[in-house]
Amino acid sequence: MAAKIFIDGHEGTTGLRLSERLSEREDITVIPIEEKYRKDSRAVRECMSQADVIFLCLPDGAAREAAAAADECSQAVLIDTSTAHRTAPGWVYGFPELSEKRRDSIKKAKRIAVPGCHASGLTAILYPLLRKGIIGADYPAAACSITGYSGGGKGMIREYNSAARPIDYDAPRVYALAQNHKHLAEVVRVTGLAFPPSFSPVVGPFYAGMDVMIPLCPRFFLKEMTAEEVQAAYQSWYGDGSACVQVSRQRSPDYITASAMAGTDSMKIYVTGNDDRIVVHAVFDNLGKGASGAAVQCMNLALGLRETEGLCIWRGKE
Question: Which of 9, 70, 277, 301 would bridge with 57, disulfide CB 3.0–4.6 Å?
Answer without folding.
Answer: 9
